[in-house]
Amino acid sequence: MRVTSMTAAIGQKDLIPFATYKKGRDEYIRKMIAYKNDRRVRIDPNVSLLFENRQTVLFQIQELVFSEDLTDAAEIAEYIDIYAALLPRSGELSATLFIEIDNQPVLENFLVKLKGIEHALFLYVNDEPVRAVFEEEHEEREFTTSVHYLKFPLSGAARTYLTTTASDVAKCRIVLDHAAMHVDVALGSATIKSLQADLNT
Fold first, then answer.
1. What would the pLDDT profile of 143-154 be if each residue is shown by its tens digit?
2. How far is CA 146 from the centre of its chain?
3. Among 38, 50, 41, 34, which residue's Cα sits nearest to residue 148?
4. Is residue 7 part of a domain?
5. What is the dihedral of CA 61, 83, 98, 108, to 10 degrees?
6. What angle separates helix 73-83 from helix 54-67, to the nearest 10 degrees?
7. Which residue from 117, 122, 141 is spatially nearest to 132, judged by alpha carbons?
8. What is the spatial distance between Cα 68 and Cα 65, in angstroms, rounded to a whole number?
9. pLDDT given at position 28
10. Which range of residues forms the domain containing residue 139?
11. Total domains present in the chain
12. Residue 1 within a domain
């Protein structure tokens, strides 16, 4: 069985046919939720980080095609191009940062407090800090956004450490060092193992 690199481009040929996906969608969603659980890091009760790869991005595209009942090849190709930005390049990790609060006024206040979060997020790999590179910065606003797309460009040493150290002993953590929130969260072995699979394919 051929293993597809988690950084490989996605094409329309990779999508499950609409009728097939519709029939097996409940099971597919169940499996994807379980898969994402190992890749989601809870930074705060209201903030989480999901490490993205080809599998998670393909699922998002598949769900979009299904929910919007898309059949036009050009329109599907446009969405594939948009989501392609989430795919990690070789030697880096990709993630989506979510700020989730149901109460809109509370959320808006929280987003004001977290302005500048783009400069405050790090992945530590064996005590080496890797600063997150955000797709967008929001310096012109008085608030940040509730969803951020970002990358962690790994050094050669960080990548070697991650790919050669057993997941149950590897030391990795997410650090948010912001004036309104300081959090230091260790990655569990299941998360590290999932990231190792990305880097080793």
1. 999 999 999 999
2. 14
3. 50
4. no
5. -110
6. 140
7. 122
8. 5
9. 95
10. 12-199
11. 1
12. no
